[in-house]
């Protein structure tokens, strides 16, 4: 398969960047600001468990509630199996609303970036092989489709020597669900095919259910934030290609 024959739309967290450590630490710092009974430093075993729960998380502020739940002794398995219910319970117990949690989480992360950018960056490493892959794809054929803020995407890519036009980054600011973004990209890319790579199975199924996106080729990045159950679910659909390593993205 020739690179010039395809366009690529890649998710960011869980496909390009392993942000779980930074997200966990930011969530813990935010939790400490809300619940002073928590120790100032995130315990290693909590960070390890946070990594296991990360596949269930959809939005950054949820890291605060996950950290609190884990510290309270909620088992990883319970969080994975009953994530939405547990998050709602933790939200009720927090005496905060979602807007407040988002504000606190964003402020903690922004302070970390302004105070120690190198430290923040070190906790947002690219997955092995990803940098080489991104540099091998012509810039005009590469798009980032993510729920992460675009400024964070640009900062991490730039720090790794990867330059991408801002118009090719579709982040949180766009306020659009990924299928809608893919509809726009599909129209732009025609007649060449578009490959969309994601680490969340539910997102891939949203694309599958959208009848206007039948020609978009789909890949699940198993190195990202998904579980064996997720991968088994993905294998049940013929449109999803299981990608074991980044270079598989460009292999037919």
From TrEMBL:
Biological classification of the source: Bacteria, Pseudomonadati, Pseudomonadota, Gammaproteobacteria, Thiotrichales
Would you say which domain of life the source belongs to? Bacteria
Query: Protein name, please?
Result: Uncharacterized protein
Its GO biological process annotations read: DNA repair
Q: Tell me which GO cellular component terms the UniProt record holds.
A: cytosol
A GO molecular function annotation here is: phosphoglycolate phosphatase activity
Q: What organism is the protein native to?
A: Methylophaga lonarensis MPL
């Amino acid at each position: 398969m020739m690179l010039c024959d395809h366009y690529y739309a890649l998710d960011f967290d869980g496909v390009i960047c392993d942000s779980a450590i930074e997200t966990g630490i930011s969530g813990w710092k935010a939790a400490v600001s809300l619940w002073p009974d928590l120790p100032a430093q995130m315990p290693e075993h909590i960070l390890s468990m946070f990594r296991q729960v990360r596949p269930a998380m959809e939005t950054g502020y949820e890291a605060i509630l996950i950290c609190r739940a884990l510290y309270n002794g909620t088992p990883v398995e319970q969080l994975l199996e009953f994530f939405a219910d547990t998050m709602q319970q933790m939200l009720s117990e927090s005496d905060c609303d979602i807007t407040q949690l988002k504000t606190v989480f964003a402020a903690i992360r922004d302070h970390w970036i302004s105070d120690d950018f190198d430290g923040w960056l070190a906790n947002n490493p690219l997955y092995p092989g990803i940098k080489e892959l991104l540099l091998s794809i012509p810039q005009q054929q590469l798009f980032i489709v993510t729920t992460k803020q675009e400024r964070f995407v640009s900062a991490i890519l730039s720090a790794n020597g990867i330059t991408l036009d801002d118009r090719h980054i579709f982040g949180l600011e766009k306020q659009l669900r990924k299928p809608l973004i893919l509809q726009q990209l599909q129209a732009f890319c025609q007649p060449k095919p578009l490959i969309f790579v994601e680490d969340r199975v539910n997102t891939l199924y949203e694309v599958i259910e959208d009848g206007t996106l039948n020609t978009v080729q789909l890949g699940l990045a198993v190195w990202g934030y998904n579980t064996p159950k997720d991968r088994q679910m993905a294998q049940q659909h013929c449109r999803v290609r299981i990608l074991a390593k980044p270079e598989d993205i460009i292999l037919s």
